[in-house]
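Q: My collaborator sent me two sequences in one message, no labels, and asked for predicted structures for both. Can we handle them in order? The first one she listed is below.
A: Yes, handling them in the order given. First sequence, followed by its structure tokens:
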Amino acid sequence: MRIEHANEPDIPSLVALNNRYAPQGLTLARSEGFAYAHLADYRVIRDGDGSAVGCVALDEYSPSIVEIISLAVTPAAQGLGYGKRLIAAAEQLARRRGYQEVFAVSFSDELFLSCGFEHAALSHFPEKIARYATVDASEILVGEKHCFTKRISTPAGVARPA
């Protein structure tokens, strides 16, 4: 298995992977337009045939804060550590881009805690609450989802791209 940048032919797979879990409230539904607009922010994990079996993306909130979104792994590939590898790839991308903090909102407490994240109050991210209101206000009411945060260091001399 290898993690790579997503590319245009991956868009239908990214949307299908992500949206597979949207009816259960585990992910927010994404469109092909969203995936295309965020293509540079996506990473995929591929099986031996080159098919995407997992994905993750970043979504910027400010020059210093980014959210890990669209974390999804096919049911057949769950339990193999791919979620951890995708989170690490997202962190690496965030670090390379110069973000100081990554956060996620998820039901997957054990996964994020095992990756070095800490619980955080969603109120620490008012931008996220405002975005929920415009995307799907019911998301803010889902009690089982928790917010996780992690401070990351950036390599010396790395400046955020303009």
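Q: And the one she listed second?
A: Here it is, processed independently of the first:
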Amino acid sequence: MKNTHRLVIAIAALAAVSSGVFSLRSHAGSAAPARTPDIGRGEYLVTHLGACADCHSQRNEKGEFIQELWLLGGPLTFAPTVPMPVWAEAALPIAGLPSFPTDEEAVQFFMTGKRANGVMPRPPMPAYQLRQEDAEDIVGYLRSLKKG
């Protein structure tokens, strides 16, 4: 049941992106932050709309999030129900965004759905194409969670 729930959430996130719940950015313009990110809005986007914790946070035996491991990644406990050429076995930690050296790279990732080297995320991670302001707010929130 838990696996089905997470797969449904991942599919819903993909549907939200394609239906415009997350606004698509224009292809013009720079990803460099031109304003102070709204950390509270970023938290809302990560927690409620993106449901990032469903993959990027571990749960206890009752299915509750382990707060000490909030957004610190871990093994995925669900798998696709149809054959897929690639599938991530684990979710990366996103608290502090340790896999992105700069805010600009992280913002660009959320705006284009690709890393700086052109690599797309492996499913179940959606290839988001967010507006710059949404991406900046998400990056601001996730950077605020940096450990140590």
